[in-house]
Amino acid sequence: MKPPVLIVDDEVSLCGLLEVFFEKKGYAPFSAHDVRGALARMEGPEPLMAMVDLSLGGESGLTVVKSLMEKWPRLPVVVMTAYGTVEKAVEAVKLGAYDFISKPFEMVFLGKVVEKAVATRVLEDENRELKEIIRRQGVELVGQSEPVRHLRERIEAIASSESTVLITGESGTGKELVAKLIHQKSLRAHKPFVVVNCSALSENLLESELFGHEKGAYTSAHADKDGLFAVAHGGTVFLDEIGEMPLRTQVKLLRVIQEREITKVGGTASESINVRILAATNVNLEDAVGQGRFREDLYYRLNVLRIYTPALHERGDDPALLATHFLGRKGHGRKRFSPGALAQIREYAWPGNVRQLENAVERAIAFSTGEVIEYLELDAATPVAPGETSSGASENGVMASANGLDPTLNDIERAYIFWVLSQHHWHKPTAAKILGLDISTLYRKIEKYGLKAQT
Ligand SMILES: Nc1ncnc2c1ncn2[C@@H]1O[C@H](COP(=O)(O)OP(=O)(O)OP(=O)(O)O)[C@@H](O)[C@H]1O
Ligand SMILES: [Mg+2]
Asked: I need a surface site. Which of 163, 176, 196, 327 has the fewest CB within 10 A?
């Protein structure tokens, strides 16, 4: 559908001319010749822009401008004035008109005014859409406990600062989530948020990822590549697990922070960058400095602002709140916890923090058949049937560790026994045969691991 354009002018011949002009540009113009006609047109869809003559016979076009602005505050309205009545045009602009143009005007000039008005409008719409997407994707920091309230205040307080932030806290406590929130609440929100996991890559790869490389820097570097600091231009770079960054890379990072410049691997020219740096660690950086694994100067550069994500067991009744939140999000609002399951959630210590809780709820949803979740698999690995996926599943697809850490042999044994049992409707003689155990050993292990059939 061609975007509609509203033309309001009592001069019918000028309307005709403008209609031809807009049609040629690919718009769908429609004209009105007086206030009443214009108001009638306003029952239709919102135009892309409007052209309004300020003197409509005996009536004032300002009435039309006012109504248009009330109905569609973002509509660009260009007012047309007769020669020598600029004050009226100024009044219209004060009412919210986008621009004015004096009659008689050259078509070329009109073309420019229209182009500018439309471009502004399109840009505004785009921005609104983006904001809406951000709002919808908007991550949430769930929790009502005192430490979480404090965390929220701290995020608000430091979001608008440009300083480097060091986020500390145990694994799974929401460090990355906090980093995202800081970005989203900052002036950089509409620019990229780039995450780099410093422990996942080799030294060379990490440097090439961060700083980019020039063609020929390695045998595999067939073309120039921008680093993430360049990709994140105007936005935020989140350096996760900064404590694992190799010492050589630390030196380069320090230079980036001090000089706001990067040099591509294999290159000589430096380019200036505009990023805010957030870093997270679950190791104690002070200790790492003491042991010579982390540069002291870099530590001081990163530690300008500090934020701590508390462990889940420090968060009062938040585990229940979070569990309900995850259940609502992943269980599509159809499932609920039994009082027993809630008690279990409240009593458990959650060594793997929010991530463990999230995984436990996800698994409970997957394993529960009815609407009520009676019980959560907590203190050890929970099996995932081969082929099934679960966010907690490890590569072998058979099991996942409960706390997001590597499973112990006991975890694996427990998970495997549980899985075989559940595959065979808890028929212990069959399970014992498959497991290669005699039945009394199986009973002992069931007892040892506290295995129960889930309903
Ligand atoms: N307060 C919270 N409200 C809602 N979701 C949360 C909250 N805290 C953490 N989460 C969720 O828990 C999961 C783990 O959080 P996140 O990845 O941010 O932790 P982390 O501290 O970076 O962990 P790690 O050190 O293991 O990388 C994510 O899915 C995150 O969205
Ligand atoms: Mg993380």
From this structure: 163
Tell me: the pLDDT tens digits for 303-342?
A: 999 999 999 999 998 998 898 888 888 876 677 888 888 8
What does the pLDDT look like over 376-400, one tens digit per residue? 877 544 443 333 333 333 333 334 4
Residue nearest to atom 23 of ligand 1 (CA): 172
Domain spanning 381-455, CATH class: mainly alpha
Give yes or no for residue 142 CB within 6 A of ligand 1.
yes
Which atom in ligand 1 lies closest to the alpha carbon of residue 169? 21
Contact between residue 42 and residue 30 where contact means Cβ atoms under 8 Å apart: no
173 lines ligand 1 (CB under 6 A): yes
- Which of the ligands is closest to the CA of residue 176? 1
**Per CATH, which fold does 312-378 belong to?**
Helicase, Ruva Protein; domain 3 (1.10.8)
- C-beta 318 within 6 A of ligand 1: no
Q: Ligand 1: does its nearest atom lie under 6 Å from the Cβ of 357?
A: no
Domain range annotation of the chain: 4-134, 146-310, 312-378, 381-455
Q: Does 315 contact ligand 1 (Cβ within 6 A)? A: no
Ligand nearest to the CA of 173: 1
377 lines ligand 1 (CB under 6 A): no
